[in-house]
Design goal:
The relative contact order is 0.10. It contains 14 helices and 16 strands. By secondary structure, it is an alpha/beta fold. A hairpin with an 8-residue loop joins strand 9 and strand 10.
């Protein structure tokens, strides 16, 4: 049966990590392996900068491109030695696509430009990884994810056409019967053959789509952490790893902002009954965390999820009208039009308050829609802390010394906005 492995930016951040990836894959020579890769290291951030510079007509676009080229070339030199290896030409040709674009005027749709430029990161990494697997005698085929993941024209947040995507799986399946396959996470293609991206950090989601539509035995995402922990170990040194988690709990954690898994990852896997393993890339013999329908949840451990850089906006009517159901529907429509995603919401007689990831452009858009009829008050730079299976005494420790701006409790979940 097929095993799907996803290697994120960390797992392809330099030559050493590509070597480690090959070592991991070589342990599975009896399996059919589909490898999904993200862009190398922080390449997506660099390509975003390049896109902004191009669209704004700044002069540093060529310099940014040069740095990205140099970064990939250094990795290739370390992996393949001389520049005579065919991968150098493949990478040069991939960069040509961006170079041609930079010579033209930007398309009026920023998101279109973004996807054509930013998707290149995954093409570069997948070419290098496929070539290095072959170099190490793992018979590997590079395939273009745009031939499989079909999306609409919603650039930067491509919506997958599941039927069309499902119907392209037999081609991939038969390739996997013969060879290891490497393809790209994060990207899809439109019916006009343009690239789309699925939203930042969307490679986990791509991998879940492939794993579910191929009816894979499992999906393993190789990360820079021991598994899913009860808190981000970067923020909480004492974070503990879950041995196992039910799909529902992993989905709740991702939804509230545990960035270890993209929030869209769980649904396709749950629907198809494909287990997910989150395993440490640097300690590949460790089991990591297993997520499936048989897993038991240990509610003795609370999960703490921190979302930083939040904005809290309170909207109230100018004429003392209640925020009744009609007004509520209207406000939610305006919020949706501004593409704001609510992280927490509370209503009183005269106001609707909600917090969302701070984003000046989205806030401005909403403010302009509402400013004539409503009063808007806001706080910026807040933290939203969500605690699943909370214990009261723990909450006191978490909030100690900070000002609580708003809080909300259900049976399983506490949400607190802190200044
Ligand atoms: N509950 C959690 N458990 C483990 N890691 C977490 C958690 N919450 C946030 N993280 C963060 O997620 C990161 C791994 O996810 P990410 O960087 O997106 O991986 P990749 O780029 O390889 O897909 C870790 O470095 C860690 O800081
Ligand atoms: N490269 C894309 C997609 C992705 O999922 O990356 P990572 O697996 O490194 O989070 C991004 O950085 O958004």
């Amino acid at each position: 049966m097929i095993k799907v492995f996803k290697f994120g930016g960390f797992a392809v951040s330099d030559a050493g990590s590509v070597k480690n990836l090959v070592k991991i894959v070589s342990e599975y020579s009896d399996d059919q392996i589909l490898i999904i890769v993200s862009a190398m290291g922080k390449t997506t951030d660099a390509l975003e900068k390049l896109c902004n510079s191009y669209v704004e007509g700044k002069e540093d676009a060529q310099d940014i491109l040069k740095t990205i080229k140099q970064f990939h070339e250094n990795i290739m030199v370390e992996l393949f030695g001389t520049k005579s290896h065919p991968v150098f030409d493949e990478i040069a040709n991939t960069f040509v696509e961006i170079e041609w674009m930079l010579e033209d005027e930007p398309h009026p749709d920023y998101d279109f430009n973004y996807d054509q430029i930013v998707s290149v990161g995954e093409f570069l990494s997948s070419r290098i990884v496929a070539a290095y697997l072959n170099e190490n005698n793992i018979d590997t085929k590079w395939m273009d994810a745009r031939d499989f993941i079909h999306t609409d024209n919603t650039y930067r947040e491509g919506i997958i056409d599941m039927d069309k995507t499902r119907s392209s799986m037999p081609v991939l399946n038969s390739a996997l019967q013969k060879q290891t396959v490497v393809t790209q996470g994060f990207i899809g293609g439109t019916s006009e053959n343009f690239s789309t991206t699925l939203g930042r950090e969307g490679s986990d989601y791509s991998a879940a789509i492939f794993a579910s539509l191929l009816n894979a035995e499992s999906l393993t995402v190789w990360k820079d952490v021991p598994g899913i922990m009860n808190a981000d170990p970067r923020l909480f040194a004492s974070a503990q790893k879950y041995e196992e988690l039910p799909y529902s709990e992993a989905l709740e954690m991702a939804y509230y902002g545990a960035t270890v898994i993209h929030p869209k990852t769980i649904k396709p896997l749950q629907n198809a009954g494909v287990p997910l393993f989150v395993r440490p890339f640097l300690l590949p013999d460790e089991k990591g965390t297993r997520i499936d329908s048989t897993a038991k949840l240990n509610t003795d451990i609370s999960a703490i999820i921190v979302k930083q850089n939040q904005m809290l906006l309170s909207i109230s009517s100018k004429d003392f009208s209640f925020i009744d159901e009609h007004i509520l529907i209207y406000l939610l429509q305006c919020i949706s039009e501004a593409h704001i995603k609510l992280n927490m919401m509370q209503r009183s007689a005269l106001s609707l308050s909600f917090c969302f990831n701070q984003d000046e452009a989205k806030f401005r858009k909403l403010y302009d829609i509402l400013k004539d009829k409503f009063k808007c008050k806001y706080n910026e730079g807040l933290d939203l802390i969500t605690v699943r299976h909370f214990k009261r005494e723990e909450l006191e420790t978490i909030t100690a010394g900070r000002t609580i701006i708003m809080e909300q409790f259900s049976r399983n979940t506490a949400q607190i906005i802190l200044q």
